[in-house]
Design brief:
It is a single chain. This protein is α/β, with parallel strands linked by helices and 257 residues long. The protein has helices spanning 30-45, 67-70, 75-81, 88-91, 108-115, 142-150, 152-161, 167-173, 185-197, 201-213, 219-232, 237-247, and strands at residues 6-11, 14-19, 51-55, 60-62, 97-101, 104-106, 118-121, 126-128, 164-166, 178-179. It is built from 12 helices and 10 strands. The structure holds octanoyl-coenzyme A. Octanoyl-coenzyme A (CO8) binds at residues 24-25, 27, 63-68, 83-84, 104, 106-108, 130-131, 134, 138-140. Its EC number is 4.2.1.17. Belongs to the enoyl-CoA hydratase/isomerase family.
Length: 257
């Protein structure tokens, strides 16, 4: 058994979380849930960290929630513990999060990837919501986030048949932001994270919040939220710096304030 269910490191201004349960294809148990959420919150509380990359290994990002941990639970145990509701804390992280996905991203693994802000994958990545084969349905957002990402018809295909979708199909469907060689997935995610890290931290957070508002509200309300956030950014030194740097044809140096 892996001693540490996740491994973390900081590279420049990027926090990396690596799920580390290779013997179970990174199946997500409660220990991983708590470790991932705590690591992401710790990165967020470090003002030097600008973005988070979450990844697995080359065989599996995560092959789902841990079936063996759940199999014998009763309805009342699942209900009373509100099983896996703790992942909602992960979705409340305000820093941009990128999933670097190789191998299997099934069930809760696909759902964890979809909790992040963008997914980088390779042709060999296998996405799926195979819960139907286990006599259950997606429970960490698959029926909701997958439908929003790829549309009803394709989400129904995935959720009702339990089939897998490779990286190319996932990119065509809009689930994957960038499709790259399988052996380049993590490096590409890190490059994107480092690019984000060169921006202003409060502006990056505002941008993430604005895009996410599109999933929670009407167009007119969303446009108002966006416009008000745009106005508010004029209180930042970084807005003055960014626009002045443009006028003076130099690269902006943001100070995160
Ligand atoms: N849970 C527990 N153990 C797993 C899981 C899993 N999801 N996936 C793989 N493993 C284990 C296997 O049991 C095996 O362990 P052991 O060596 O002790 O037998 C080891 O990982 C290696 O797996 P395989 O031998 O099966 O590897 P293969 O390469 O033959 O097959 C597959 C790979 C196709 C990925 C296969 O392992 C598989 O089908 N896994 C299960 C996929 C799945 O059904 N995922 C969905 C799980 S349910 C879910 O995610 C619900 C999320 C919502 C929960 C929220 C509740 C509110």
């Amino acid at each position: 058994m892996s001693e540490h269910v996740i491994l973390t490191e900081i590279v420049g201004r990027v926090g990396v979380i690596r799920v580390n349960r290779p013997e179970a294809l990174n199946a997500l148990n409660l220990a991983i849930l708590h470790a991932v959420v705590e690591a992401a919150e710790a990165f967020q509380n470090d003002p030097n960290i600008m973005a988070i990359v979450i990844t697995g290994n080359e065989k599996a990002f995560a092959a789902g929630a841990d079936i063996k941990e759940m199999a014998d639970k009763s309805y009342i145990e699942m209900h009373q513990s509100d099983w896996f509701s703790g992942w909602s804390r992960f979705t409340e992280i305000r820093l941009p999060m990128i999933a670097a996905v190789n191998g299997y991203a099934l069930g809760g693994g696909c759902e964890l990837a979809m909790m992040t802000d963008m997914i980088i994958a390779g042709p060999g990545t296998k996405f799926g919501q195979p819960e139907i084969n286990l006599g259950v349905i997606p429970g960490m957002g698959g029926s909701q986030r997958l439908t929003r990402a790829i549309g009803k018809s394709k989400a129904m295909d995935m959720v009702l048949t339990g089939r897998m979708m490779d990286g190319e199909e996932a990119e065509r469907a809009g689930l994957v932001a960038r499709l790259v060689d399988d052996n380049n997935v993590f490096d590409t995610a890190m490059e994107i994270a480092q690019t984000i890290a060169s921006k202003s931290r409060p502006v990056v957070m505002a941008a993430k919040e604005a895009v996410n508002t599109a999933f929670e509200t009407s167009l007119s309300q969303g446009l108002l939220v966006e416009r008000r956030a745009f106005h508010a950014l004029f209180a930042l030194e970084d807005q003055k710096e960014g626009m002045e740097a443009f006028s003076n044809k130099r690269k902006a140096e943001f100070k995160d304030r």
